[in-house]
From TrEMBL:
Domain Fibronectin type-III span(s) in chain numbering: 12-107
Protein name per the record: Interleukin-22 receptor subunit alpha-2
Main localization, broad class: secreted
Pfam hit, one: Interfer-bind
Protein's UniProt keywords contain Repeat: yes
């Protein structure tokens, strides 16, 4: 029995955490500290905070991987959720490892906008698209993150003559089309953008650079 107890402890999953980007939500964990824990299989359950019964996640029942997609199960974005994982090896099951409480609306990371640039000889027009959630409208199009948050766009310009690292903020607001004027012909400029949620005081990462020579 003692050996079983040791095996139970040594394969118990570690660091059970929710990761979420634009409401695409996955549960991650690390294998137990024993070397052989790498060969373990994992079982995932989830529940809404306050519920007494745990739900099995069928797609993540006896899996070798260390990640489980719970996007669909956490679609009520204002609710707080828990996930938990246990491991099995050689017929021995570990105890459950519990995640911290996770509330999608509060904790999902919001991605940067999609950026396209069109130039004329002295200006750049920047077109922005909000990031999309995994959830669909009845017609099948993905619902954008602006449905869930009051999002602002922050647009930065990089003058490649001056300094690659210096990003000048040229716009903050809700417009999807922005014109940056009075630029120098023949100079290479790059544009990057972020989304910003004032209510949560949270910014996305920078978008990928879109560059153009006037």
């Amino acid at each position: 029995v003692l050996e079983n107890q040791d095996l139970q402890d040594s394969i118990k999953p570690q660091k059970v955490e929710f990761h979420s980007l634009n409401f695409n939500t996955t549960l991650h964990w690390q294998p137990g500290w024993a070397g052989e824990a790498r060969d373990a299989l994992y079982f995932v359950q989830y529940k809404v905070y306050g519920q007494s019964t745990w739900q099995n996640k069928d797609d993540c029942w006896g899996i070798p991987s260390h990640v489980c997609d719970l996007t669909h199960e956490t679609s009520d974005i204002q609710e707080p959720y828990y996930g938990r994982v246990r491991a099995a090896l050689a017929g021995v099951y570990s105890k459950w490892s519990l995640s911290c409480r996770f509330t999608p609306w509060r904790e999902t990371m919001i991605g940067p906008p999609m950026v396209a640039v069109v130039h004329s000889n002295k200006s750049i027009t920047v077109k922005l698209q909000a990031p999309r959630s995994p959830y669909e409208r009845k017609r099948g199009s993905k619902i954008t993150m602006t449905n869930y948050y009051d999002l602002l766009y922050q647009v930065f310009i990089i003058n490649n003559l001056l300094d690659e690292q210096h990003r000048a903020l040229v716009y903050e607001g809700k417009d999807k089309v922005i014109k940056i004027q009075d630029l120098r012909p023949g100079v290479s400029y790059c544009v990057v953008a972020k989304t910003y949620v004032p209510m949560l005081d949270r910014s996305s990462a920078y978008s990928s650079r879109q560059c153009t020579v006037l």
